[in-house]
């Protein structure tokens, strides 16, 4: 019985040493331990700020900043302020475009109703959309003093697609030859 207890203690001691060794190695490097509750863990050297958002997260931001089916050209100031559309340093964006369509139609650009340009990796819509282009009238202004003038146009839109979702509004074109 004494022999069995002694062997168990040796195993426990070895386990404690391995845990301490692991903790020492992890604390002395850039490797970040991840939550192991539900996934396989791989070491990473990424900082939290450099982790790229998933397509669905980026799409939610895209929707907030660029899709508004009922907007008019006179709604720029209200929409940009309400939706908090500013540069990271809280300065006003020089330009922001809203697509006047429902989410389903805009998403279709990335799912068969757009053409991927292999040079710039952007997707060009096959059809034209009504859009409102909001242009800043007081350059250099900071929130909440942004003043925009809106213009309603009908153009093809150019977006970046990831995972079947539009995640970045690149611009608009009258046609592909532009």
TrEMBL record:
Keywords attached to this entry: Disulfide bond, Endonuclease, Hydrolase, Nuclease, Secreted, Signal
SMART domains for the chain: RNAse_Pc
A Pfam family annotated for this UniProt entry: RnaseA
Signal peptide: 1-27
Source species, domain of life: Eukaryota
Gene3D superfamilies documented for this protein: Ribonuclease A-like domain
Stretches assigned to the Ribonuclease A-domain domain: 55-173
One Gene Ontology term, aspect cellular component: extracellular region
Gene Ontology MF term list: endonuclease activity; hydrolase activity; nucleic acid binding; RNA nuclease activity
UniProt key word Hydrolase: yes
Listed SUPFAM superfamilies: RNase A-like
InterPro entries: RNaseA, RNaseA-like_dom_sf, RNaseA_AS, RNaseA_domain
Cell compartments where the protein resides: Secreted
GO biological process: angiogenesis; defense response to Gram-negative bacterium; defense response to Gram-positive bacterium
Similarity comment text for this entry: Belongs to the pancreatic ribonuclease family.
Protein name per UniProt: Ribonuclease-like 3
């Amino acid at each position: 019985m004494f022999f069995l207890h002694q062997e168990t203690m040796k195993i426990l001691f070895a386990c404690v040493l391995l845990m301490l060794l692991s903790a020492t190695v992890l604390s002395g490097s850039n490797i970040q331990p991840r939550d192991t509750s539900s996934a396989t863990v791989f070491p990473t050297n990424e900082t939290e700020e450099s982790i790229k958002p998933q397509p669905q997260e980026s799409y939610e931001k895209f929707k907030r900043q660029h899709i508004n089916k009922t907007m008019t050209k006179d709604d720029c100031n209200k929409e940009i302020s309400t939706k908090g559309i500013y540069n990271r340093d809280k300065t006003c964006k020089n330009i922001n475009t809203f697509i006047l369509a429902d989410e389903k139609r805009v998403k279709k650009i990335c799912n068969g109703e757009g053409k991927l340009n292999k040079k710039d990796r952007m997707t060009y819509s096959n059809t034209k959309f009504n859009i409102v282009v909001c242009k800043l009238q007081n350059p250099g202004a900071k929130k909440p003093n942004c003043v925009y003038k809106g213009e309603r146009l009908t153009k093809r839109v150019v977006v970046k697609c990831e995972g079947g979702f539009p995640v970045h509004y690149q611009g608009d074109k009258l046609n592909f030859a532009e």
